[in-house]
UniProtKB/TrEMBL annotation, chain A:
The glycine cleavage system is composed of four proteins: P, T, L and H. Binds 1 lipoyl cofactor covalently. InterPro entries: 2-oxoA_DH_lipoyl-BS, Biotin_lipoyl, GCV_H, GCV_H/Fam206, GCV_H_sub, Single_hybrid_motif. Its cofactor is (R)-lipoate. The keyword Cell membrane does not apply. It comes from Sulfitobacter dubius. The keyword Transferase does not apply. Belongs to the GcvH family. The glycine cleavage system catalyzes the degradation of glycine. The H protein shuttles the methylamine group of glycine from the P protein to the T protein. Keywords: Lipoyl. CDD domains: GCS_H (cd06848). Residues 16-98 form the Lipoyl-binding domain. The modification N6-lipoyllysine is found at K57. This is Glycine cleavage system H protein.
């Protein structure tokens, strides 16, 4: 699993990457009450706002970590946003992205580096 | 993940100007008598109105909210200002009449050991602060918002000092115990509190060896008590209450969602100097005796505007807004009268997720012609118009002991 400075985790599965937010991010957000997912088939560029997450505290965005096409979204989150708090690094993945440039994955942190990053 | 662009954050969160404006270094912040207890309980402390305050405890905002509606929650509201206004004559009536020069409320007619909601108005009819007034027999007891208290105290000193002494009670804490089990919890220490009715006040009450002044009131839409206690006794009292099975400590986060579901205004958001009491739908707080043809009509700042609006209606009104989908509509969301095109007819002033409602709730101002209950409107969230309905408040039925 790889980690971004925006507190996303990325898991490569073939030519796709599965994207979620870290346990640390979920704790910081507090109780998640709303998730808006992108449409499958959307082509995105790195840093595009792809997902809206609202917690009891505030609204946040998940950015596309790399260029690619959204191939699948976890629509269970729309009906049950609290999954994000219950299992952020497991069941509560947000979307799968088919990447166009695998080398973009080289920029991200491994778990030990991420743990140091959040201190 | 990052904070959403253009999304307003709640007043108690770190990014809000109110939270950072006055004192943005933790070392500049004032602390209440319960500060160390909050830290010990694992609270997340944030700057609020110049104080370091608990925004949530380990339970989290959602569970704290639901616990308060189901059992009892203990809130530290010691950052609010507690002020005694005592007429030089020693008579309550003289203090009340003096206070009536600042508020559009019947203070003289307030019964002994009774409390009432009021607001300081300005010459334009705007609201300088909202407050509670209590008749303690020989003086008025006033509780004002933390963010406004310096201005409020200056206002009272300037306007009332010729007739009254103004004493700020810096040596007292204020705790709120709220929820359907608040009575049972407090009555274990002092059975007589069960006999108090909504807005009753009692002084020199013994709570397991600690002397307090308390009222049966609060700001959550639940039954409960607000308890004024000497700073030196505050931690001991809080520990006694927290030791009870039904009581959990509750932070500012849940306080905000509770008062929002209760349809109650947050000063600086839902009411301020740009809103009149009539626009804010606070007409109920202006008793007949202060209105046109009343015995003491007018005589408060902005009376011309406010009395005219009471008679003829205001151009806009604060209303409850129920979004149809799941997306919260927060402060600043623009309201339109059509799904496409149409006109902007209002703005959300408070909004978020209502844990008891189980979905988003909001309040805001809309033009008078769109203020009728059941009017369909649209809020623009991230460029999309989402449907909402003008709704009666409170969103959750109030649970007071009348």
């Amino acid at each position: 699993m790889k980690f971004t400075e925006e507190h996303e985790w990325l898991r490569v599965e073939g030519d796709e990457v599965v994207v979620g937010i870290t346990t640390h991010a979920a704790e910081q957000l507090g109780d998640v009450v709303f998730v808006e997912l992108p449409e499958e088939g959307t082509v995105v560029s790195k840093d595009d706002e792809v997902v809206v997450i609202e917690s009891v505290k505030a609204a946040s965005d998940i950015l596309a970590p790399i260029d690619g096409e959204i191939t699948e979204v976890n629509s269970a989150l729309t009906d049950n946003p609290s999954m994000v708090n219950d299992d952020p690094q497991g069941e509560a993945w947000f979307f799968k992205l088919k990447f166009t440039d695998a080398s973009q994955m080289d920029d991200f942190m491994d778990e030990a580096t991420y743990q140091k990053f959040i201190g | 993940m990052r904070g959403s662009s253009g999304a307003k954050v709640p007043a108690w969160s770190k990014g809000h100007p109110e939270a950072t404006g006055k004192a943005n270094r933790m070392s500049d912040l004032k602390q209440t008598a319960l500060h160390d207890l909050h830290v010990e309980l694992g609270a997340k402390m944030v700057p609020f109105a110049g104080y370091s305050m608990p925004v949530q405890y380990p339970l989290g905002v959602m569970k704290e909210h639901l616990h308060t509606r189901a059992a009892a929650g203990l809130f530290d509201v010691s950052h609010m200002g507690q002020v005694v206004v005592r007429a030089k004559s020693g008579s309550y009536d003289d203090a009340a009449l003096a206070m009536e020069s600042l508020v559009p409320v019947d203070v003289l007619g307030l019964g002994e050991m009774r409390q009432r909601y009021a607001m300081f108005t300005d010459p334009n009819g705007g609201i300088l602060d909202d407050l509670m007034l209590a008749n303690l027999g020989d003086h008025l007891f006033v509780v004002v918002n933390a963010g406004c208290k310096d201005d409020d105290i200056a206002l009272m000193k300037e306007a009332l000092s010729d007739r009254c002494g103004i004493e700020v009670l810096d040596d007292r804490a204020l705790l709120a115990l709220q929820g359907p089990k608040a009575e049972a919890a407090l009555a274990r220490f002092q059975p007589s509190v069960a006999d108090m009715k909504f807005m009753d006040v009692a002084k020199d009450v013994d709570i397991d060896g600690i002397t307090v002044t308390l009222s049966r009131s609060g700001y959550t839409g639940e039954d409960g008590y607000e308890i004024s206690v000497a700073n030196d006794d505050a931690v001991a009292l809080a520990r006694k209450l927290l030791a009870l099975e039904e009581v959990e400590p509750i932070g500012l986060g849940a306080r905000d969602s509770l008062r929002l579901e209760g349809g109650l205004c947050l000063y600086g958001h839902d009411i301020d100097t740009t809103t009149t009491p009539v626009e804010a739908a606070l007409n109920w707080a202006i008793q007949k005796v202060r209105r046109n043809d009343g015995e003491r009509a007018g005589g408060f700042p902005g009376a011309g505007v406010i009395l005219q609006q009471l008679a003829d209606g205001a151009p806009r009104k604060r209303v409850g807004l129920l979004p149809e989908g799941r997306a919260p509509m927060r402060e600043g969301v623009a309201i339109f009268d059509a799904a496409e095109g149409g006109n902007e007819v209002g703005t959300v002033t408070s909004g978020g997720f209502g844990p008891t409602v189980g979905g988003p709730v909001a309040m805001g101002y809309v033009t008078a012609e769109h203020a009728k209950v059941d009017t369909p409107l649209w809020g623009e969230v991230r460029g999309k118009r989402l449907p909402l309905t003008v709704t009666k408040m409170p969103f959750v039925a109030a649970n007071f002991k009348r």
